[in-house]
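Hi team,

As requested, here is the filled-out complex form for the zinc ion run. I kept the field names the same as last time so the parser does not choke. Let me know if anything looks off before we queue the next batch.

— J.
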Amino acid sequence: MKLEHIGIAVANISEAKSLLQIIFGVLPYKTEAVESEGVITHFYHAGGVKIELLEATDPSSPIARFIEKRGQGIHHLAFSVDDAKEDFQRLTNLGLQTLGEGPKQGADGKHIFFVHPKDTQGILMEFCSKSD
Ligand code: ZN
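And here is what came back:
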């Protein structure tokens, strides 16, 4: 298991993009909407890690509600696993509160699920594997 990316919730996507361009000199290598989550994701390779900027598409989306409650900033840490389905079961069996009924289709061609931050020192954790 290793760090796959860092998800950052941003209120103003053009400001966030300019900042990454100024600091790292990079542009997103991929931009993708995930309609079910009301989010547009912007992926970067910056500073040796993958960064996912998360832009809400409507005020009721989870990202918009996150920003309303906690402000902009780190939204989740994502870890790559071999099989998201297996780890979903494993972590659920360990008593961690996983979100949803099982892994779902996320951005970047991945199967993803989340573990509730109340069980992980306040950090929302995403686990992802390549879709088959
Ligand atoms: Zn993510």
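Two things worth flagging: The chain has one domain: 2-130. The radius of gyration is 15 Å.

Thanks,
J.
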